[in-house]
Design brief:
Layout: H1 3-21, E1 36-37, H2 39-67, H3 74-101, E2 104-105, H4 110-135, H5 143-169, H6 174-182, H7 184-190
Helix pairs in contact: 1-2, 1-5, 1-7, 2-3, 2-6, 2-7, 3-4, 4-5
Length: 192
């Protein structure tokens, strides 16, 4: 998978995980990531963090699918969905922390690139938090309305993940792209 395309692929995978379960960066400095690291170290750390996040998201999605029993009450399904999104928020917070501690890649524009990646995940986290706020308002008196509203929330999450993937996928720094393309942890994400 090409250097910048792998990133979009990761987001596509994450979006698919979320969609299955549920039926923009400002170029800042990444919130204090100060240590300069080689592009290879950066790629390894970021992909390792992404791998953990994708795995946790996939595991949560699998658990959610079984827990959203169609014969359960809408209130019960709403609670399960709320717990799922709470877990995704926690996982995304951990991912942001891991990406920040990955440092700054020693490439031209490295601070901006690190910031753009952190900002993309911050955007996802914000969207998840907004979606979580909407879960409590899901209608529980009409099963069809509940299903339609829950599906719309899943679509909203997928849209956010796709937008973040587009933002990160737009990074085009040749040395860093080669590092991501050559990192085994990154190539494993494309096939996850």
């Amino acid at each position: 998978m090409g250097g910048s395309r792998w990133k979009l692929g990761v987001w596509t995978i994450a979006a698919a995980v979320t969609l299955t379960a549920c039926g923009g960066g400002d170029g800042s400095d990444g919130g204090g990531a100060e240590e300069t690291v080689t592009p290879q170290e950066y790629a390894s750390d970021v992909c390792g963090a992404l791998d953990g996040w994708v795995t946790a998201s996939r595991d949560r999605a699998g658990s959610l699918t079984g827990a959203l029993n169609p014969t359960a009450s809408a209130e019960s399904r709403r609670d399960v969905l709320a717990g799922y999104i709470d877990g995704l928020i926690e996982d995304t917070e951990a991912l942001i922390g891991d990406v920040r501690t990955a440092g700054v890649p020693d490439v031209e524009g490295g601070e901006q690139i690190a910031g753009q990646i952190v900002d993309a995940f911050d955007t996802v986290k914000t969207e998840l938090e907004q979606t979580r706020g909407e879960v409590d308002a899901l209608p529980t008196d009409d099963p069809a309305a509940f299903t339609a509203a829950a599906t719309q929330l899943g679509t909203s999450i997928q849209t956010s993940l796709t937008a973040a993937g587009t933002s990160v996928g737009g990074i085009s720094e040749p040395t860093l792209n080669r590092a991501f393309a050559g990192e085994p942890a990154c190539s494993g994400l494309g096939g996850a």
